[in-house]
Amino acid sequence: MPRRAWSWTLVTVQFACLLALAATGPWIAAAPGLLALEAAGGFLGVWAVLTMRIDRVHVAPDVRPGAELVSHGPYRWIRHPMYLSLLLVGLALAWNAPSPARWGVLALLAINQVVKLTYEETLLVAALPGYRDYQTRTKRLVPFLF
Asked: For position 4, what pLDDT does the model report?
């Protein structure tokens, strides 16, 4: 599959999973703990976008011309805070109204995000000279763990 088609396939699966979670239950978690998890995911996503600068955010994992390494804000600890943001919100929504289908969609979203970030990192290593060093200093998705 050509690189651009693969990138947009990963984006399509990501958005299909998010839409499936939104379509099969409430969009806002009812339990206080789950609402806090959902809010934390939303906050992390907004922080990541603002740190990256909204005009540089792109949903596809392709590296844009003139891309620069961002290593402050949440990127100080993890390389893919926007992906983690989506997973936290997805987890809160699936846990809020659990069903086998919703857990399956969340699992598919998690797998897709790991595949997407792995693919994106191969492109970033090739495009950004300091990215390999950045990888040694930070975790991919979960601070201090992964």
From this structure: 86
The DSSP symbol for 139 reads B
DSSP state, 60?
A: S
Beta strand residue intervals within 11-58, DSSP E: none
pLDDT in tens, 85-123: 999 999 999 999 999 999 999 999 999 999 999 999 999
Q: What is the pLDDT of residue 1?
A: 76
Residue 33 placed within a domain: yes
Instruction: Give how far the C-alpha of residue 96 lies from the chain's centroid of Cα atoms, to the nearest Å.
Output: 20
Residues of the domain holding 118:
3-57+71-137
Place of tokens 């601070």: 143
Q: Which residues contact 90 (CB under 8 A, 6 or more apart)?
A: 17, 18, 21, 41, 105, 106, 109, 110
| 145 located within any domain | no
Distance (Å, whole) CA 5 – CA 11 = 10
Give the distance between the most distant pair of CA atoms in the chain: 45
